[in-house]
UniProtKB/TrEMBL annotation:
Membrane-spanning ranges: 12-33, 45-67, 87-112, 118-139, 151-174, 226-248
GO CC terms of this entry: plasma membrane
The keyword Transmembrane appears for this protein: yes
Protein source organism: Flavobacterium sandaracinum
Designated name of the protein: ABC transporter permease
Lineage: Bacteria, Pseudomonadati, Bacteroidota, Flavobacteriia, Flavobacteriales
Length: 255
């Protein structure tokens, strides 16, 4: 299992797309801190990178890589190796490589320019978001044999979590503005890993006042130790559940 992880990990690190991804992250991160007069503005710029660019690259690259590795997976299946070990090795190899790329590209600038709780929080959230969308990539790739459909599912998943989900939330808030549904929004937030990440980072940036009454409620809940633990637990579930579903499908799939 460790050998498979090592092979996948080293193979991905040599991939030009990952090298370009790391370089672009580094350029954007360093320039964000270099061009702004204070680190807070740079952190807000990196926040957008974490919430939009990182999930898109993670889910797209992982999905395409899995489809391109079909022959390698079939070769592994012909060996006396359990399917669970193969799928888990693929996930760990991909995840480690993507997290390392994020750490080098955005993590190091964060730790140097914002060596505080906010910088560490953004680094941890970025790593978790990477893992979440790699897990979703595994799920989307196992749902269909067709590469184009799989990539389409991955893109639609990213669009839903990055854009459509917020639109739905805004629509609900507008339609039910006469009702006290702010507390219900806390529950709804759990259905989007990007929103969970955004709220945690914004609360640590202490800009919740800009979010109005809803922001105050989020701060009262997610700003506590219990809320922080719950949000991280939910993000971990967003990693575990999609991967576990994909693992079950992979075990039963006739390749």
């Amino acid at each position: 299992m460790n050998r498979i992880i090592k092979i996948i990990f080293l193979d991905i690190l040599k991939n030009k797309i990952i090298l370009a991804y790391t370089l672009i992250l580094a350029i954007l991160s360093w320039s964000s801190f270099g061009l702004e007069d204070n680190s807070a503005k740079g952190l807000l710029t990196i926040l957008n990178i974490i919430l939009f660019t990182v999930p898109l690259v993670s889910i797209l690259f992982a999905t395409i890589y899995l489809y391109n590795s079909t022959e390698f997976i079939e070769l592994l299946l012909s060996q006396p190796i359990k399917r669970k070990k193969i799928w888990l090795s693929l996930f760990l190899g991909l995840s480690l490589a993507m997290v390392l790329a994020f750490f080098i590209g955005a993590g190091i600038p964060l730790l140097i320019n914002a060596p505080n709780s906010v910088g560490i929080m953004m680094l941890v959230i970025g790593c978790l978001i990477t893992l979440v969308f790699v897990a979703l990539a595994f799920l989307s790739s196992i749902l269909t044999r067709d590469k184009a459909k799989g990539i389409g599912i991955a893109i639609m998943g990213w669009l839903y979590f990055a854009l459509l989900f917020d639109g739905i939330i805004l629509y609900l808030l507008f339609q039910f503005s006469d009702y006290p549904i702010e507390k219900a929004m806390i529950v709804v937030t759990a259905f989007s890993p990007i929103d969970l990440a955004r709220i945690q980072i914004l609360l640590h940036l202490d800009v919740s006042a800009m979010m109005g009454y809803t922001g105050a409620i989020f701060k009262d809940f997610f700003g506590t130790s219990l809320g922080l633990l719950l949000s991280f637990s939910l993000l971990c579930l967003w990693i575990i559940i999609p991967f576990f579903i994909s693992l079950i499908k992979f075990k039963n799939k006739d390749l």
